[in-house]
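pls read this protein.

:::
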Amino acid sequence: MTTTVAVIGATGKMGKLASRIIESSDEFELVAQVDSKGELSEMLGADIAVDVTVPAVSQRVVEYAVANGINVIVGTSGWSSERIAALERTISGNLAVGVIIVPNFSIGSVLATSFATMAARFFDSIEIIEAHHASKIDSPSGTAVRTAELMGTARGALGPVVAPHVDQRARGQQVSSIPIHSLRMQGVVAKQDVIFGGNGEVLTISHDTLAPNAYEAGILLALRAARSARGVVVGLDKLIDLGLHPERTPGAPTS
């Protein structure tokens, strides 16, 4: 039995990509393609809604889907920790619906963010430089925000990073005390560098997205997980085994 899917924001780049992946899969059936300005009622009847709209529309899409018992994959930027917390309160106790928020569908990007989170405890000087195509309307990117938030949490009692001259706009926007610098340029798909400064050394964790097909595996992974998702799940890293559990035998099958 196939799972029915509605794509909202279907005329955009990510919407077209998601629609193509769904249409070519034997596991899923594309039953609605809705423009960001279209009628949300067109998603009714779908098992899963894929939101790849714009930040100003995304929250309304998610609220409508949740109110109608439709699980949602959110691939739209702009979901801050505060907005996610509000969503968690909204669906708290609702065991019939789930929302998966994916700042980045690239497996490589998820790994790079995980590596940066591991490194954050060992350096007090950390900054992020992220670049996207010129038409991306939001900054910093959802991936950069997610990376900074995870690093901030990982640092715990270590406290904020060293970020001098924060009064200067050129020093970047701070998220969890970590400066983020955003580039929006022609010829770029997506790129993120997390730079760690230490005594006598600099560590850079870099990820480049060279073509949109880098997102295909992550989209399919999210679609499969969305079938049974409950509550709010943030990040593709929650859906894959990163091998960071020492009690697990290497090579052993995951549950």
In short: The CA atoms of residues 146 and 223 lie 21 Å apart. Confidence is low (pLDDT under 50) at residues 246-255.
